[in-house]
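Title: Prediction job returns without error message
Component: structure pipeline
Severity: low
Priority: P3
Assignee: unassigned

Description:
Job completed but the reporter wants confirmation the result is attached to the right record. Sequence as submitted:
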Amino acid sequence: MANHFVEWRYDYHGTTPAVMTEPFPSKDEQMVFIQAYIDTNKDELGNHDGSSVEEIRKEMEAWLMGTHVGWGLWGLVQASQSQIDFDYFAYSMERLGAFRESLVKWSVVD
């Protein structure tokens, strides 16, 4: 879910596809999506552990760092290897910067 919400920020068909131009989904948008996900996937999820939508949302926030660092490192590899016309280096730097911002946020949380 963390990766899904980050992807909301990119307009891959716009003039700057390697840059997060859209706002991160609001807390309300996140809550609606998570509830819809749970409701839609009840059969596949089996015995849902009873986590509240808010608990899942908070866990998703913790995984934002993982998605940022993973895609940031992937972008660095692509910048040196890919023949596709895409600014992988800028994408990587943005994702690693977002990781650093999240790390600072989580470092000050009790």
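Comment from assignee: result matches the submitted record. Helices lie at 2-7, 27-40, 42-45, 53-81, 88-107.
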